[in-house]
Amino acid sequence: MRDGSSPRAKSYDKLRLTLISCSIAANAICAGGIYTFPLISPALVARMHLTQPQLSTIILAAMVGQYATAVPVGKVLDRYGPRVCSLIASIIFAFGYGMFARQLALTPEGTSVASSPAVPKLAVYFGSLGIALIFSYLSMLFAATRTFPQFMGFASGTSLAIFGLSPLFLSWVATEFFTPPDGVLDVTRFFTFLAILTGVVNFLGALILPGPAAAEFPIARTSEDTARERDPDDDAEAYEETSLLTSSLQSLTGLDALCAEQPEHLSAIELLKNPNFWLFSSSISLVVGAAEMIKSYIGMIVLSLPSASHTGNISFQVQLIAASDTLTRLLLGPFADIISPVPTYSANGVWAFPRKPYVTRMIFMAGAALLFAIVLLWPIVGVRSQEALWPLSLATGIVNGAIFTTLPSILSSIWGAPNQGRNFGFVSYTCFFGTTAFSYLYAFVADSHTAPGEGACHGIQCWQTTFWLGSAASLLATCFAIVLWRKWRSRV
Question: What Pfam families does the record point to (predicted)?
Answer without folding.
Answer: MFS_1 (PF07690)
